[in-house]
């Protein structure tokens, strides 16, 4: 039986025990939702939230052969595929599944008339790949229906798809190639996590990469006729590699790597000589993504500069950078070049505007908005854009206090305002100022300030910063939250006596750890799909993830590391948590099993603490269905009203 199904069984086996251990638990089941000790949502709160919960965005997935755009957006419960034929045109919905879809990839021009996408069941992340035929308007499964499949990449001819799969043993991720009839053949079957990067122009070679950790990956060139694998990295100098792609002439590769410095640079490698050069050395920030035009004339790339995206366009014929029209300040997703290389699709998102699809006409240097997503009828001019602040923490760099970046959403008025600290997951991720309707509700409706820190271990600030929380340095990141509490106490407009903390996944661990170490300085905390014990987490997370997480947190099989992980785990320090806690979880979570939530709920309640508990039977690592997300958001706002504001 798959481990995710076992997790689901454990969730329901353990839930009734709460009532036996704590007779005052009020347990309610409604459809796929189980809640404990969560009061009924007041109608007044539901009405205030409704507009914020009915904002929506749209994202570009790529160009279809007829020149229309494939996009994702949500009209019902989940994100689905839509086609957009022109700027401001009607969104033609193509898929109508109960579950959200992902990994949309349109076939290249001249190939099949359709697209590939991924879909799981109930958030299990055991994605299956499907081909949607635009001629027949039907979808058919290409994978085995049992394994975990991801990262589809079309061949240049558009007749085959390379992808990663756990089909062989459920633990390792191999590379397969599948045709549109579902015939799948292995290309790389080795220990570890292997992913596809791209095909050569003649489809005779494949770029693949073995992912070791966020700090290290190992790219190879695979000859499909012989199976020979040629390494493209220096074994003596571990580095991270991302987004490898062949040049149009097949003579070289473009890729992103930190092989020569702190940041991830866009680089070019000549295959014949092995010589490399940087195309972004003048930008002291990470390059996060790039896209090549089919004719090899243009290369677009995005740099993440202190959390804000900047788009660059290179003319590969002469090496010069092309001036682009002014773009909104915010976050960018590259949607790819059109088949004729004359248009570039983008997804643009800002703190005050949900994601929308834009297109740049390269000949006219003109930006056109193709979608205008809804903001629930709200006055978008009232949305608050955060400011970037930096606060000192406990250690030093070059004789000066290290500073931690954070985004600060400040309500209108004089204060003093209560505060919610929102900690991102990962930990190898970065909080960025994208559109967040929940943050806007807190700031505008509840007059709560929101602080979103990027504690040590976050990406985007160089590989040294990224590794500052690894292994035995885990609690140094928690100290960064203590330093933020010190900073809050020094701000006259903030109320240091009313501070709450929330976060998901690894951010959920940070919530629990903060409540352990700073219990007396916090009012309450919300932990969503968070780790409560590193040892049980590592033992119970899905097998295909286990070694990847050991690279970050440490190997629990080593006695010394196991003792350390047990010592710092919030579960083993739950007696120090006396403030109200809200725990929310998906029953099918393959990353952080539901048992992590159940054991911290049981422990805190066993010490007399107040815990609200929420479990969705049809969700995994987060809440992808609108009705579930809406209920969680309403419950979390009620939690803050009750325990942070005292309303």
Automatic annotation (TrEMBL):
Instruction: Write out the entry's keywords from A to Z.
Output: Aminopeptidase, Hydrolase, Protease, Signal
Q: Name one GO molecular function term.
A: aminopeptidase activity
| This protein's record includes keyword Protease | yes
Pfam families given in the database record: Peptidase_S9
Give me any GO biological process, just one. Answer: proteolysis
- Looking at the record, the residues that make up the Peptidase S9 prolyl oligopeptidase catalytic domain are 440-644
Q: Which InterPro entries match?
A: 6-blade_b-propeller_TolB-like, AB_hydrolase_fold, Peptidase_S9_cat, Peptidase_S9A
Protein's name according to its UniProt entry = Dipeptidyl aminopeptidase/acylaminoacyl peptidase
Q: Which organism is it from?
A: Rehaibacterium terrae
């Amino acid at each position: 039986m798959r481990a995710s199904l076992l997790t689901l069984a454990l969730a329901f086996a353990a839930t009734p025990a709460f009532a036996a251990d704590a007779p005052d638990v009020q347990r309610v089941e409604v459809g796929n939702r189980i809640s404990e000790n969560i009061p009924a949502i007041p109608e007044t709160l539901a009405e205030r939230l409704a507009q914020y919960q009915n904002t929506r965005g749209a994202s570009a997935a790529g160009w279809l052969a007829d020149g229309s755009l494939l996009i994702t957006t949500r009209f019902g419960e989940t994100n689905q595929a839509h086609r957009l034929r022109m700027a401001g045109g009607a969104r033609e919905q193509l898929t109508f599944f109960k579950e959200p879809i992902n990994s949309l990839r349109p076939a290249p021009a001249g190939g099949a008339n359709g697209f590939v996408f991924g879909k799981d069941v109930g958030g299990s992340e055991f994605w299956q790949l499907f081909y949607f035929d635009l001629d027949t308007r039907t979808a058919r499964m290409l994978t085995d229906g049992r394994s975990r499949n991801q990262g589809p990449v079309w061949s240049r001819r558009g007749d085959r798809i390379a992808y990663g799969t756990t089909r062989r043993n459920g633990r390792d991720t191999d590379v397969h190639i599948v045709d549109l009839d579902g015939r799948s053949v292995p290309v790389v079957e080795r220990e570890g996590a292997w992913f596809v990067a791209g095909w050569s122009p003649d489809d005779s070679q494949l770029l693949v990469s073995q992912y070791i950790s966020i700090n290290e990956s190992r790219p190879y060139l695979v000859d499909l006729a012989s199976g020979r694998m040629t390494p493209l990295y220096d074994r003596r100098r571990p580095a991270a590699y991302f987004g490898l792609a062949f040049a149009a002439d097949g003579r070289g590769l473009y890729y992103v790597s930190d092989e020569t410095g702190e940041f991830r640079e866009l680089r070019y490698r000549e295959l014949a000589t092995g010589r490399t050069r940087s195309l972004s050395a003048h930008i002291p920030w990470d390059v996060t993504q790039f896209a090549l035009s089919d004719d090899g004339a243009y290369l677009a790339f995005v740099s993440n500069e202190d959390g804000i995206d900047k788009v660059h366009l290179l003319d590969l014929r002469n090496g010069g950078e092309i001036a682009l029209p002014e773009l909104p300040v915010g976050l960018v997703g590259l949607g790819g070049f059109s088949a004729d290389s004359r248009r570039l699709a983008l997804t643009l998102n800002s703190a005050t505007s949900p994601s929308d699809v834009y297109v740049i006409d390269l000949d006219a240097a003109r930006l056109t908005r193709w979608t205008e997503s809804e903001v629930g009828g709200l006055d978008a001019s009232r949305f608050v854009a955060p400011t970037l602040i930096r606060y000192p923490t406990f250690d030093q760099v070059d004789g000066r206090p290290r500073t931690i970046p954070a985004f600060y959403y400040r309500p209108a008025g004089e204060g003093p305002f209560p505060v919610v600290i929102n900690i991102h997951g990962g930990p190898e991720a970065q909080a960025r100022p994208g559109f967040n309707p929940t943050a806007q509700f807190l700031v505008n409706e509840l007059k709560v300030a929101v602080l979103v820190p990027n504690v040590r271990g976050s990406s985007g600030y160089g590989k040294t910063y990224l590794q500052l929380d690894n292994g035995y340095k885990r609690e140094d990141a928690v100290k960064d939250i203590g330093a933020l509490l010190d900073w809050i106490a020094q701000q006259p407009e903030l109320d240091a006596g009313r501070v709450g903390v929330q976060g998901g996944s690894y951010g959920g661990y940070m919530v629990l750890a903060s409540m352990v170490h700073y219990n007396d300085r916090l009012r309450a905390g919300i932990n969503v799909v968070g780790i409560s014990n590193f040892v049980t987490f590592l033992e119970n997370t899905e097998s295909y993830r286990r070694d990847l997480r050991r690279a970050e947190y440490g190997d629990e099989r080593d006695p010394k590391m196991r003792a350390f992980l047990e010592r710092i785990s919030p579960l083993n320090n739950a007696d120090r948590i006396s403030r109200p806690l809200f725990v929310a979880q998906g029953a099918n979570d393959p990353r952080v099993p539901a048992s992590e939530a159940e054991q911290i709920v049981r422990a805190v309640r066993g010490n007399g603490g107040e815990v609200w508990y929420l479990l969705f039977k049809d969700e995994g690592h987060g809440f992808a269905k609108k009705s579930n997300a809406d209920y969680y958001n309403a419950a979390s706002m009620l939690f803050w009203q009750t325990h942070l504001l005292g309303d």
